[in-house]
Amino acid sequence: MHSREYGPYGPKPEEKLHYEPQYKIVKCRINGIRVTKMVDVRASLTDFLRNEFALTSVKKGCEVGECGACAVLIDGESFNSCIYLAIWAEGKDIWTTEGLTASDGSLSIIQQAFVDEAAVQCGFCTPGFIVSATEIISRGKYYTIDELRKELANHMCRCTGYENILIAVQKANNIENGFEEIEEHVVNQIKEEDKKDYM
Ligand code: FES
Ligand code: FES
After folding, report:
1. Which ligand minimizes its atom distance to the CA of 120?
2. Were 71 and a residue from 66, 128, 133, 153 both cysteine, which residue would form a disulfide, CB within 3.0 to 4.6 Å?
3. Matching NCBIfam families, A to Z (predicted)?
4. Which regions in the chain score pLDDT beneath 70?
5. Ligand 2: distance of its center to the CA of 122 in Å?
6. Does a structural domain hold residue 5?
7. Which residue range forms the structural domain that includes residue 47?
8. pLDDT digit string (tens) for 63-92?
9. Does ligand 2 have an atom closer than 6 angstroms to the CB of 99?
């Protein structure tokens, strides 16, 4: 008699023993708070943060690791969370832009620098830039604008506000790390020695 269980197309008995569970418990810290959640083993960290914790600063842009809109800090390093499985967050310390504000709601230096330097247009790319800038600033090293351009090359701004973003990141880095030497970055300004050419 034909049986689905043991017929030619049915699973072999030993295969039945190797089913992986579809959901796993993940314990980690998110923005300084310990959390324990059951997660789908296929879920990205982006979906985990947005759907389970309403951390919507974590944007879904390309979802293939190309644009940086979904960047979050994992143990102090900036990662694109769209290509990072939620189950890999086990035991990790994760920070999003929401967690960078003070408890009274005041902005961090890097967040304020983006406001002051008009480095925000539609704002879609902004949280990702701020997360990566936070990692850069934590290194305690001076960066020129050109060096920052390379450091942030994995972030895209569809509004093309790159110059102001770079200025904001350099300003915050200088303030946080106490660098007095501030590179004069000329944006739509005419240098003194060139002014005669325009008169
Ligand atoms: S959405 Fe993750 S890198 Fe673009
Ligand atoms: S401000 Fe619009 S994508 Fe950067």
Report:
1. 2
2. 128
3. XdhC_XDHase
4. 1-19, 181-199
5. 5
6. no
7. 19-98
8. 999 999 999 999 999 999 999 999 999 999
9. no
